[in-house]
Amino acid sequence: DQQVKQNSPSLSVQEGRISILNCDYTNSMFDYFLWYKKYPAEGPTFLISISSIKDKNEDGRFTVFLNKSAKHLSLHIVPSQPGDSAVYFCAASDDDYKLSFGAGTTVTVRA
Amino acid sequence: NAGVTQTPKFRILKIGQSMTLQCTQDMNHNYMYWYRQDPGMGLKLIYYSVGAGITDKGEVPNGYNVSRSTTEDFPLRLELAAPSQTSVYFCASSYSREDTQYFGPGTRLTVL
After folding, report:
1. Are A46 and B41 a contacting pair at CB < 8 A?
2. Using CA atoms, how far apart are residues A31 and A51, in angstroms rounded to an integer?
3. Which of A88, A102, A103, B77 could form an SS bridge with B65, CB 3.0 to 4.6 Å?
4. Does A2 contact B at CB distance below 8 Å?
5. Is the Cβ pair B103, A101 closer than 8 Å?
6. By the 8 A CB rule, do A20 and A6 touch?
7. With an 8 Å Cβ cutoff, is B30 touching chain A?
8. Separation between Cα atoms, residue B98 and residue B82, nearest integer Å
9. What is the pLDDT of residues B42-84, one digit of tens each?
């Protein structure tokens, strides 16, 4: 049973515009959420995270928003750059150290 | 500082063969993890370890075994390979539960 869902397998965006990636979760015990970025033939790398006590966390061009009541989080990338073309995974954990991952969204930034 | 390294990068096995996927980290991390990623799916936790000598099952442990004799190494053993084990395998490590997990580059395994 998939507890973390990324319903958009792919996203295409023009360079300089905003990329918005969405993630939904079903487990109300999740209290920590992360986004990982993955290039082909490489392992995922950590991008940004947010604790359930916050509703927004920002790091440079990347902002994650959390809506606990809707069990929804999103990642905003502004402005999008060609190097942002990658697969983005949403992940969540509860009070243990096990991450549940979504299936990923492939972002393509067009020049 | 190499981070998390995995060998081999690619491997093709016949049904019933066995192999060990190697994982080493040089960051002195206590926690280590093995994940598999099937096409169109998220990463699923196979086994994890919270320190040398301590391992436990994750979400999909069947068909696999692990050991953690040192802090640095966390090998994953497939005893009787099956086509359902065709996947990309990622090893990861973190200093503590709350810390970021750092991933290796992955091993692409095909069982025919």
Report:
1. no
2. 6
3. B77
4. yes
5. no
6. no
7. no
8. 34
9. 999 999 999 999 999 999 999 999 999 999 999 999 999 999 9
Q: Which residues have CB under 8 Å from A52's CB, separation 6+?
A: A30, A31, A32, A33, A66, A68
CA atoms within a 13 Å half-sphere pointing along the CA-CB vector of A36? 24
Counting one residue from chain A and one from chain B, the pairs whose CB atoms sit within 8 A come to 55
**What is the rounded CA–CA span in Å between residue A55 and residue B92?**
28
Residues B85, B76 contacting (CB under 8 angstroms): no
Token pair belonging to A75: 């990642």
Nearest to A43 among B42, B48, B105 (CB): B105
The Cα A58–Cα A63 span in angstroms is 4
* CB pair distance less than 8 Å for A2 and B4: no
Are B61 and B6 in contact by the 8 Å Cβ rule? The answer is no
DSSP state of B73: B
- State whether residue B31 sits within 8 Å of chain A by CB: yes
* CA dihedral of A18, A2, B54, A43, whole degrees rounded to 10: -40
pLDDT score recorded for residue B30: 94
B84 in helix, strand or coil?
A: helix
Interface contact A30, partner B, CB < 8 A: no
| Across A41-56, average pLDDT | 94
B45 vs A: CB within 8 A:
yes
